[in-house]
Structures are given as structure tokens and as C-alpha cells.
Amino acid sequence: MSRDLTHDLMPQTDHDGMSRRLAVLALKRAVGGVLQPALMKSYETNVKPRTEERLGRPVKHAEDFRNELKDTPQYRLWSSVNRAAQHRMWTMLSNQIDADYDRIEEASQALPGNASLVEPVDFSAPGYIAQADIHCQPGGYLLDRFDGDLGAGLLYEMGGNIYAMGQNIGAKDSKAQRIINFICEEFPGLKPRKVLELGCSAGAQTTYYPEAFPSAEIHAVDVSPAMLRYAKKRSDTLGANIQFQLADAGDLPYADNEFDLIVSHNMLHETEASHQRVIMRECERVLAPGGLCLHQDVAVQLDMLPPFIQFLSEWQKENNGEPFWLDYASANVPELLVKSGFGRDHVKAHYLDQLDGPLKWYVVTAQKP
Ligand SMILES: C[S@@+](CC[C@H](N)C(=O)[O-])C[C@H]1O[C@@H](n2cnc3c(N)ncnc32)[C@H](O)[C@@H]1O
């Protein structure tokens, strides 16, 4: 179940449609492989030396050179093509989903259905979630055009794969599988009876957990009804037995000490700073003694980033619909967990290589003795 997984709900297309997908992917790879190195060269050979001469000291932060780098042709080209590629990707995928929607709808209704979905009627998502069309995805996580719409989840799953492959992440990559391998190596004694994923979105990571822990109950929450609707159908397609629930990770509908394993994949960079604290407190509350809580996300901690990469992080916030990217990049996740009641000696940060890709993941684990 890696990034090359296909299933019945994914939009099918013809030869021309495949060419359009490959064209977007090629554009994204050109941004990362040609335009970004050119931008970096312009920074290293011109902007950085000039800034250091002006300041009389080495460059320390992106703010030292931000305006000057933004004024270069290399930045304008990289930034505009990067934005255009992202918008082109969503338009192309929206068209392909719409063109095949009747078949997708029919396939989704024919499913036997092992997974379940609980949606409390009085639920309201935290306000920050509607603040932006995240990743410039049309309608963001809450896109819900008509009764039963599966569009948000389809867009998210398809777009996520193209986005990752555009960063030269391989088809065999998987966040959840990387984390499951890590848990089995580092915490071999952990045999979870109940697992909870926070911020599951389309459920693309969740479906790894029943396979890894076949005797465990697998639960997953998200604040987007549209994403969960798709996640349930997707799990049904793959025969995965998962209990999805519409819930805020900062206000979980579970008893104290209920789960032996709590995970999140790429959720924290989508949460407002004040809410990160609330989520950590809930993790501490619902984690059982002897259990493990693990948050995996992008490795963009500002205190360890070279200034040029800090600049790229700022770009994500300003141009790629990532309003909380810098909240996350400047957060001290281990400290948040300690303040939520986990013992300092039981909290640890790790940098893990991707399973099939050039990047690292930032992973923070917290154990409850
Ligand atoms: C980038 S997606 C990650 C999806 C999935 N975990 C993956 O890696 O494929 C982040 C998800 O977190 C969800 N989210 C954000 N804040 C949340 C909260 N307070 N409680 C539950 N889910 C939340 C969003 O709705 C979104 O679906």
C-alpha cells in the first residue's frame, strides 16, 4: 500500500489524461530539480555574500536576506512556476475526478464495508481549519459540494502522491510503514490492543495499521466530515477494518487511558500553535500506562534549519496555503509533550530517513510508564 497503490475509487483516465498527470509531475520535478537549485546558487553566490558584507556578520536568519532574494529573477521564476504547478495539479485532478465521478460513486456504493464512521451531529471543527484552502487545494479539507461528496478525499490522496513524487519521493514510500518499522525496532515490547490515529484525512496512512497490528482495534479521527467519508469508503475498498470518528484531536471522545498507541502523520504542521498544546494534553489523557504516543511530521524545525531552507519554509506559508507551517516549525514538540504531563525522560526526538525518498521525517515519541 505505497504511493503506487491504485484502487477502485481513484479516477480512471485515458491516454491524454495520463499525459496531463505526467506533465504536471514533470513540471513539479523541474521546479525542484532545476529552478530551486538555480535559486540556491543565486543565494549562495550573490545574495548571501552581499548580505554578509552589508551586515558585517554571517547570515543567521532568512530575514537577513529575504527581500533581496525575492528581488532576483531566479526567485520570481521559481516562485511563479512553483505556484502554477500546484494550481495546475489541482485543476487537472478536479477535471479528472469530475469526468469519472459517476463510476467512482457507483463503485463506492457497491462496497461491502468493514469500516465504520461516527459523526456526532453537534460537532464543530476548530475555527483555524477553515482559515485557508490548505496546500491551495480547492475548498481545503472541508470541500463538500453535495450530499456524499468524495471529492475532498480524492483530491487529497491523488494530489498528495503527485506532490510527493514531484519532490523525488519514490513510489514505494509510506509514512506509516516507516513509522511501523521504527516502532517494531525501537519498542519491540509494544503489542497494542487499541491504536488511534489523529488527523487521518483520507485514511491513506491509517490502512497500514490493521495490517501491522492485526489483533488490535484501529481508530482514527479527523475534523473534516468530507475527508472521513472518503477515508471510510477507501478503507472498505481495501478491506481494512477501521473505526473512523469525526472528532477534534484536542477534544477526544474517548476515556482516559484507552489507547496503547497514538500516532499522527503530518498533522501538527496543519494545526494552530495554541491547539498543539491542547492536542498534547489529550494524548497524555487517553494514552494507557505502558503506551506510546508518536507524532511524525516534516523535518523543518527552525532552530536546525540553514537560513536558505528557512526561507523556503516561509514561502510555504505565504504561497502554498500553509498558514501553520511556521507555528509548527518554531514549536518545541518535545517540550509541549513534557508540559502535558509526559516525563522528560520518556520524551525523545528522532530524525528518520524516509522509506523511499531523499528527505527525513521529524518524529517525537512519548511513553507513559
Ligand atoms: C496533512 S493532513 C495529514 C493526513 C494524513 N495523516 C496523512 O499523513 O496522509 C492533516 C489532517 O489533519 C487534520 N486536522 C487538523 N487539525 C485537527 C484536529 N484538531 N483534530 C483532528 N484532525 C485535525 C486535517 O483535517 C487534515 O485532514
Write up what this structure looks like.
The structure is a single chain. The chain has 369 residues and is α/β, with parallel strands linked by helices. It has a domain at 175-367: Rossmann fold (3-Layer(aba) Sandwich), CATH 3.40.50. Helices cover 46% and strands 14% of the residues. The chain has twelve helices and eight strands. The chain has an eight-stranded mixed beta sheet with strand order 1-4-3-2-5-6-8-7, with helices on both faces. Helix 9 (273-286) links the parallel strand 5 and strand 6. S-adenosylmethionine (SAM) binds at residues 126, 129, 141, 175, 198-201, 204-205, 221-224, 227, 248-250, 265-267, 270-271, 275.
Give the low-pLDDT segments: none
**The CATH topology of the domain at 175-367, please?**
Rossmann fold
Integer average pLDDT: 94
Evaluate the radius of gyration.
21 Å
Assigned CATH superfamily of the domain at 175-367: Vaccinia Virus protein VP39
Distance between the termini: 33 Å
Order of the strands making up the biggest sheet = 1-4-3-2-5-6-8-7
The CATH class designation of the domain at 175-367 is Alpha Beta
How would you characterize the largest beta sheet?
A: 8 strands, mixed
Strand content: 5-15%
CATH architecture of the domain at 175-367: 3-Layer(aba) Sandwich
Ligand kinds: S-adenosylmethionine
Structural class: alpha/beta
Written as H for each helix and E for each strand, in order along the chain, the element string is HHHHEHHEHEHEEHEHHHEE
Could you tell me the number of beta strands?
A: 8
